[in-house]
Sequence to fold (145 residues):
Amino acid sequence: MKAKSQSAGENELLSVAQALNLSSEEQHTLSCEKCNEWIDVIEQIEQELSNEGFTRLLRIVDSDVYVGKLCADLKRKSLLSSKYKAQINECLKTKKFAIDSRNSLQPKLKEIQVACKKRKVFLEGEISKKYNNRPVNIMGQFNFV
Fold:
């Protein structure tokens, strides 16, 4: 039995045993070129079957252990995602609380700044009186308030 006939003609026939599964029309028009096309198609199918993604899908279908591992991995990732969402929500609450606290303390800070400025001016005046009314400037951080 030969896969291809040895001569170089265009419409070379394969052995009858190889062509039994073909329709009668295809058996009469079977050529080496057509067989080469089929072989190319079969090789492409074999490549697709050996593809890593396809192999992974076959493992999922065939193996309960693989499905279990995949489910455990998905569950772990889901739990991590839930944990991160909870942390994000907690951070947002903390941020809102900090902003509210800052906004509520701003008026008090302004009052303290005004009182500090008044005390500074008062102290400069008192010290100036002790030095024959010479100008006195108190230096320090409260000048930046």
